[in-house]
Structures are given as C-alpha cells and as structure tokens.
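Sequence, please.
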C-alpha cells in the first residue's frame, strides 16, 4: 500500500475510516486513526449528543431539538479534542447531503478545522460553493455509479473550475444506508467488484482522481484486490467499531462480537433507502407495534419530511441511533456492514491498521 494525497493532504496509509454517526466516530476514533497514519473521519450528524447534555441546548422529551441536533459548537469541541490526539495529521468530516441543513453543516466543519469533507447520501453538487472561502479543504463525494462520477466532474468542472479531490465508491455491503434500491442490493451487477471498473473508466476521462473502494471490505486481501483493480485505497467502517478507541458504547461492540451472519439484516429507513443493521429488540418492538412513539424532534434529514418517513417504517432514525450511543439497549439501532458477524475481539486502532497493512 502506497501513501496517497487527497487534495493537498498526505495520507500515509490509504485507509479511510468510515464516518459513522450518530456518535460512533467522533474524537476518540478519528483522532486515533489519523495519528496512526490512516484518515480519521468525524461524523457531523447528531453532535448535539456529544458530552450530553452539554451541547444539546433546550431539550424536548430529553433530546436536542432541530437547532442543536447537529451542533456547530459540539463539532468544534470534537475537532479540538481529536487534534489533541493526532496533532496536525489530516482529519476529515463526513457530512450527509441528506441533512436538512447541509450547507450549515459544511460551513461548521470548515470553521472547526476539517481538512477534508466526505459527502454521501445524495449528490452534493453544490459543495464547492459552500467551501469557496476554504480553498485548502479537499472535497470527496461518495458515489455508487459511473453516472454519478460523471455528474460531479461535469458540474464541478463547468461551474467551479475544479474536480473532486477523490471519490469513494461504496457498494451495497456497507453498514447503514445504501445507495441502491432495496431489490438491487443483492444483485451481482451492483456489487463493488462490478461497479468499480466502469467508475474507474469514467473517472480516468477527467484526470488523475484517486478512487477508494468501500463496502464489505474486511482484510488485507480485500484491500489488495481493489488496489490491483485500480483503486488507491479503501474506506472501512465496521471493523473500526470493534476498537478500544471507538466512541461507541461497549455494549455496541459486544453486540458485534456476539452476532452471527443471520443477525445482520437489510431494512427500510425513514430516508427512503435500505439500511443494513443488526436485528435487535427494536425490530421486535416494531413487529409488535410497540416501538417508541415517533415525534420529529430533530428534523434531521429532509427526505423524512418531519417524521412522515419515520411513521411509514415505524421508527425515528435520529432517536434510535441516539439511543444506541446513550446505551438505551431496548430501543437502540445498531448499524453494521455485512461482515460485522466476523468481529471476534476488540483491539486497538494501531493493531487493526497493522493487521490491515501487514495481514492477519
């Protein structure tokens, strides 16, 4: 594995830690990944729960309202604490385009001192406009098709005289939300191995833009495979959950260790996309029509339309993800990729990166 650059930022180990929200990848995990040579990624979603209730503002039903669900002040504090761990090593922020106030989130991340912005959950074609006052911030869209790569390159080239600093290509084996229709997630033609070649072909038309593979990547053999295909590196989420430094509660980590392959399911999400998660007590409550009452306090993603999407699928994603990090085990929602059941121990970030670069 060779070092890479994303914009002006050098990454010693070409492994990007997935931006897992709410509260799974904050200063603890991101700082540890960056100081050990990878790219640590801070999730910007749900930062009102950071050091709860310090940044939550006025609570509604014990939760931060829509003004503080994504707290700019909390994000700055997260960056400050991550910098104590990693110094000047590059740090990234994952900001979902689907957030109700995506623009505010981007500006907050720039003000907090991010070096790189990674954005998925939609096509963030206006991202360069929002970061024009921060020219050193590298921009990395998450895509799942050659058509998406073409849209970004064409739009950014014409409107902003620039191209993406890198692409992350995410296949349908990742944890959380998928960029594919429910019925397509298992089809061979939509798997990462199938979509990477056509995306690399499209990206090559626009210049030397580094491409990272993501979704279902487990070990060095997987990483080597995608590098041989033409990627420069990978993004990984699930394996970083099972590290000592991960900000997730211990119960979440132990759930992964105790899980088997059948415990990992693809379900519906309030945002209208399939999402991969662990089957837990929450799903049993939903099946019995006894899930917690839906009250759109956070107004987190525009596609949910103030809780209408949540009512269709019988749960609020913001509240249930928050319950997971607040250790409310009966009603927590726990995302994982398809390989989550393979986790059998909790190790340090340093040891994990050694395994990924040197082999098990």
């Amino acid at each position: 594995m060779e070092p890479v650059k994303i914009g002006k930022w050098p990454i010693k180990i070409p492994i990007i830690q997935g931006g897992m929200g709410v509260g799974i990848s904050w200063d603890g995990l991101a700082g540890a990944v960056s100081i050990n040579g990878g790219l640590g990624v801070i999730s910007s979603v749900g930062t009102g729960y950071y050091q709860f209730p310090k940044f939550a503002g006025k609570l509604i039903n014990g939760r931060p309202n829509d003004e503080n669900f994504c707290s700019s002040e909390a994000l700055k504090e997260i960056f400050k604490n991550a910098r104590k761990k990693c110094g000047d090593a590059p740090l990234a922020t994952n900001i979902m385009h689907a957030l109700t106030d995506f623009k505010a989130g981007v500006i907050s991340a720039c003000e907090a001192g991010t070096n790189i912005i990674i954005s998925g959950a939609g096509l963030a074609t206006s991202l360069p406009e929002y970061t024009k006052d921060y020219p050193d911030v590298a921009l990395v869209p998450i895509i799942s098709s050659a058509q998406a790569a073409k849209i970004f390159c064409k739009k950014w080239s014409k409107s902003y005289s620039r191209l993406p600093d890198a692409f992350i290509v995410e296949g349908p084996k990742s944890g959380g939300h998928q960029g594919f229709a429910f019925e397509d997630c298992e089809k061979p033609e939509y798997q990462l191995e199938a979509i990477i070649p056509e995306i690399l072909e499209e990206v090559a038309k626009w210049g030397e833009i580094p491409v990272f593979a993501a979704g279902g990547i487990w070990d060095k053999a997987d990483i080597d495979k995608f590098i041989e295909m033409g990627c420069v590196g990978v993004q990984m989420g699930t394996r970083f959950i099972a590290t000592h430094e991960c900000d997730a509660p211990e119960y979440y980590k132990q759930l992964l260790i105790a899980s088997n392959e059948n415990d990992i399911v693809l379900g519906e999400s309030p945002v209208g996309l399939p999402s991969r998660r662990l089957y837990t007590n929450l799903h049993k409550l939903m099946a019995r029509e006894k899930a917690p009452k839906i009250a759109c306090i956070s107004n987190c993603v525009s596609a949910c339309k103030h809780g209408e999407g949540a009512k269709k699928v019988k749960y609020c994603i913001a509240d249930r993800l928050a319950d997971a990090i607040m250790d409310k085990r009966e009603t927590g929602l726990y995302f994982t990729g398809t390989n989550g059941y393979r986790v059998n121990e909790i190790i340090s970030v340093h040891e994990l990166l050694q395994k990924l670069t040197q082999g098990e």
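The longest helix spans residues 72-86.
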